[in-house]
Amino acid sequence: MRPLSVLVAQRLRRDWLQLTLWVVGTVALAFAGFSGVQEAYGGEQDRLGILAAVMANPVILLFRGLPSGTDESAFIVFLLFPWLAILAALMSTFLAVRHTRGDEEAGRLELVDATPAGRWTPTIATLVHGTLANVVLGILVASTFLAGGAASEGSWLVGTATAVVGLVFLGLGMLSAQLMRTSRGANSLTVWILLVTFVLAGMGNAIGTPSDDLTHMESSWLTWTSPFGWAENTRAFDVNLWWPVLLCLGAFVVLTAAAFALQGVRDLGESIVAERLGRASGRAGLSSTLALVARLSTPSTIGWMVGALLTGALSTSLGGVVDQIGGENPAIADVLTSLASEGDLQQAVVVVFFTMAGLLAACAAVQTVARARQEEAHGTAEPVLATPVQRVRWLTEFIGIGFAAIILTCAAALGGAALGAVGAEDASGLLQTAAVSAAGQAVAATVFLVLTALVFTVAPRLTITVGWTLVVVAIVLGLFGPLLGLPESLSNLSPFAVAPELDGDSIDVRGLWWLLLTIGVGAAASLTLMRRRELAPAG
Fold it and tell me: 359, 379, 374: which is closest to 463 by C-alpha?
């Protein structure tokens, strides 16, 4: 037991900052839900109007939870639970991969295996570590609901549901680490599965059966293919069903057992999925470091572009439907226009969807700069910088490719908007709104590019953690701030919330100038500081 306790303690010391950021961010989102709903939707009729609008066209709020009545606490769960669960899932996924395939890839696991700890203890320590993190997260989420005056059973149920979704993805992350040869491949596999299951749950709810009073939705069979759907069907603060929690726990046990079984049949450093053999000689186009950076970033950029294409298509294809529903249900019109500047409802819909496209562009940018940190931590940056390539040039190329990823992602969203607008009554107007929004969100996404690059130069070991945290905080403030009733001054701290957009027939530049100033200062500071920074290995 002593090697296990020592390893768990070492993991907790190593991860205390990252876990604190994940847990505090998730709990803060739950806490903000209470104050926001009480202020913006304090009356039952207000909540009933929103639910009626969702039932009329569930696709509008596809990424919400499962409607389970007009009770204030149940309404908060409807608005926020999927995002509490996805934060728990991401925390667990990255933790599992970092301490299994990540340590193995870096050579640390081989050293630990040579001690009395043996080969199995580090994996068991990861399991204990991740379970403790999710238990603490679940307790704190439940405590937040209790502190807000919510019913006891519902509070503990929503906290438990959040924790068990995290456990499912802890097991999935451990399994992916056995399947894939690199931590990058394992993380990519788990994140794609996470996104697919998240969307499946939303789609299953969207095509479900509404109740006669338009306050509840019965999920379709599609929802039951996703752990997010299982957790949502606990219906906290309504009927309080505990048995779906057992489905998540069962999946956790199966995935964890599979991970241990696969570890027992493979050699250290190998993987179940064989690594694809490379070419005997490189292409002529890969003779420069810029081409290398582009090659490393291409697969992830394509993934973000596909998501942006679908987002753009929804932004214009739903415009006419939302306009009709907004006239019949003023509540949904208030929600959408609160997320955008003063303009007609169709413009507001496009702005909201392009805010999501801006989020995808920011993710593409952060992932590109994070790749520079991964190259440094894995030791593959050192051979490149041992050549005449200067450090400033090396970072400049990552920033340049990151900016290209932003432009391509926003362009894909605009292309999707053009496809969705085919046959629309006001296609030209919708495309004009989409074009201005795409340009504005590209500027907003660039802020995250340069800020992540700045973190990379001053605190390289925090690059990935801080970069993604900035994106999560900004999207919560920018996209959910108005829904949660947060002060406008706080919501406007998010670059997504102050990006230029079309207001009627004119362009409202909003926060363009301070966004450009931030980009200029951040880029200059990161490149200047990079000149004197030493390489920082993994630690």
Answer: 374
